Amino acid sequence: MAIAIIPARYNSTRFPGKALADIKGKPMVQRVYERCSKSESIDRVIIATDDERIMEAAKGFGAECIMTSESCESGTERVFEAVEKLGLTDEIIVNVQGDEPFIHHDQLKQIVSLFEDKNTHIATLKRRIEDREDLVNSNVVKVVSDHFGRAIYFSRCPIPFSREHHITEMELDNHMYYKHIGLYAFSSEIIPELKKCRVSSLEKAESLEQLRWIENGYAITIGESSYNSHGIDTPEDIERVLGMLKL
To answer: Vertex 98, ends 35 and 29: CA angle to 5°?
Structure first.
């Protein structure tokens, strides 16, 4: 059974009230909820929030919603708390960010399918970088993986680094580079272990929570997606993305 949990907080630093921002007549969190609900790979969708306004909005469009602590420092922490409160112990938990109203159903299908391998306990996605600006943009997280489909490392820097080319000269035809698609899934039984992991030095250096799991010895299975991610960080992102995609 695959359960999508959507962490949604109100007090976003760059975009307060982002979860309730209007996207063509519906709040953003509703758009994410509806995308997940339409996926044949997802059996149940739950919104996890720390704000009564989001809770009321979720009830208004018929979503299952659970209140979580205001002290959660990340969406992943909120998802883990929701799993514990709901007593989920034998499911695939898909962490779908509340600012991904354009998530593609094939991405959800693909990440769930990675758990057909019984050795998979954490999964995520990558996509080949086609724009050089993404390669040198520190806000675009890069990833390298091994021949067995496991992530080796995530970084805000271009990886692997080319000794033959200065960073200003690095081109996409020198190597096949991949960006990380920030969609995660977990087997529910691994979550209590992950909750015990302390913040790691690599995580602090890169400000990437997935490095905590790698540094603590957990394998992350990674699939290659044909679709990009279009997260919303600012009000301007909504208009920009709507101009690119059909909703």
So the answer is: 65
